[in-house]
Each structure stands twice: as structure tokens, then as C-alpha cells.
Amino acid sequence: MFTCSIAGIPFRLDCDRPLETLGLRGRFGPFAVAPMDGPGLTLTWQAGDPAAVPVGELLFDPGSIWRVYRRADGAAGWAVRIGYPSPDTALRATLVTDADWSTVTMVERLQAGPSLLTCGAGELLLRGRVLSHDGLVFHAAGLDDRGQGLLLVGHSGAGKSTQCGLWEAAGAVAMNDDRVAARLLPGGPVIFGTPWGGTAEIARQHQAPLRAIIVIEQALENVLDPLPPAEAAALLLPRTFLPYWDAGLMANATTQLHRLLDLVPIYRLANRADAAVVDLVRSTLG
């Protein structure tokens, strides 16, 4: 069994194929750890026909390449189909999970290229499991600036990867340029790099106490303004990966978000993507 730690959560993979065959060693190797005790996620992976795995009622279709269903056996939890029959997309995998995403079975149709665990399927597992660990996954960049974690939240094209480059040049550590997990730990909020990076493919096993959340947008001048939590929530919700298919999970996720916003200062950063941004943020945060 292969074990890695993602957002401080043990992820255990039981697989009958070599990790190299599935392309997993490169993606998850930096996150590999010795076997860990404690609650986490255990995934049993097997090659097979994902269409042969029965599913129940369709609950959520985001209009992309995955859909969430009830489990066919009536047990608590969900079945997730990734890819589905269409002129240009074939069903690639089916996940069956319990209600808290602690035990998952994945049946995947093998084809050329790496397993879907290296991309969307792996992310779905983290998004589901982190909710039981007082956390969320954001469409964001994560930075460790001299021991202070910064969560730079933005839509695709807002400049997250560019910001990572600017901050790294100033001595900060870029954890991830696209997918960052945040958890409310007993000592305070902490952000974590994850294995799934963005255009710059920054995906480090690194964590830092969260000092500030910064919503970034492009502009002609650099301006950093504080945001009240209510306004920030409206901006962050679309940039948070939320479990829309279940009311209980949604209540949990929104509670975590509001707790986070009550504890961490939030800012809006209008910026022209130059090095002066770093000095502006540092002088404000102290």
C-alpha cells in the first residue's frame, strides 16, 4: 500500500499495478510518507469497465466530464462517473465512496497516458475528504512568505502563476499555483500545497500558517483594500470547490468558509503584475 500526506491527511492507495504504470509516482512521489495512523482516506484502485459499476439517481451534473449519483446499493455516500458516453468523450472511471469520503473504490478503464488520479479524480477525493478535516480546497495560489501563509484567490487567468513568480523572486516559497487546501487546525488556519498545480505546475509538499486571504484581479495600478467578511464570502464562494449535490455537505463547507473568514483578514488586490506588489502586501501585513 502506498501512503501520501495531502493537506496533512493520510491518503492510502491499494493498487494492483505499479505506480509508474499509472503515472502516479511523479505526481504523488513528493507527498509520499511512511504509513500514518489516524483518520484519512483509503482508496482501492482496480482496472476494469467503469460502466459495469452500478449507480443510482443522478444528483449533480456540472456540465463538465464528471457526474455525481446516489450509490446503487442504497448505502450512504455517492458514485461519481468521470467521463461519459458522447461523441468525443468516453466513460473513464467510476468512484464509489462512503458519506465522508474515507473509503473509496475506483474502477478505471486503462488507456494511453496516466491514471485520472493524477488530475480530476484525485482532486475530487481531496475536495470530499478535506471537509471532514475542517477544510476546503480553493482555486488559488498558496505562498509561504517568511513563515506567513498567503492565499491568493482568483479565477483562471487572474494571474496566480504570475504572482507566484513575483513572490518567489522576492524570497517566498510558492506551494501551488492553482489548487490550495486550507484547514482550521487547533493552532489556527493553515494552508497546504497539493499535488495538482496550474499552468506553472507548482505543486509542493509545503504548509504555512495562514496570515491573509487576497482576492487578486488585474488592473493598471496596484491597490490593496481590506474586504469585510460578507463581501469576501460572495467573492470566494465561486472560487471554492463545493459539494453542491448534498445539502449537509454544503452546510459543512459554508460553515468552514465563514469560520475561516472570521479568523483571517481578507483583501482585494488590484494589480499590474509587477514586483511592487510584493512590497505593497508586505508593508500592509507587517
Quick gist of this model?
The protein contains seven helices and 16 strands. It has 286 residues and is an alpha+beta fold.
Structure keywords:
286 residues; alpha+beta; Phosphoenolpyruvate Carboxykinase, domain 3; 2 domains; 5-stranded mixed beta barrel; 7 helices; 36% strand
What would your notes on this structure say?
The protein has 286 residues and is an alpha+beta fold. It has 2 domains: 2-133, no CATH class; 135-285, Alpha-Beta Complex (Phosphoenolpyruvate Carboxykinase, domain 3), CATH 3.90.228. 23% of the residues lie in helices and 36% in strands. The strands form 2 sheets. The chain has an 8-stranded mixed sheet, covered by helices on one side. It is globular and about 55 Å long. The mean pLDDT is 93.
Q: Indicate the mean pLDDT.
A: 93
What is the CATH-assigned architecture of the largest domain?
Answer: Alpha-Beta Complex
Please outline the major beta sheet.
Answer: 8 strands, mixed
Helix content: 10-25%
Gross geometry:
globular
Structural class: alpha+beta
Please, how many domains?
2
Counting H and I runs of at least 4 residues, what is the number of helices?
7
**Beta-strand fraction estimate:** 35-45%
Q: Termini, distance in Å?
A: 45 Å
Order of helices and strands: EEHHEEEEEEHEEHEEEEEHHEH
Oligomerization category of the chains in this entry: single chain
> Can you identify the CATH class of the largest domain?
Alpha Beta
CATH overall fold name of the largest domain: Phosphoenolpyruvate Carboxykinase, domain 3
Low-pLDDT stretches = none
Strand order of the largest sheet: 1-2-3-8-7-6-5-4
Q: Give the strand tally.
A: 16
Radius of gyration: 19 Å
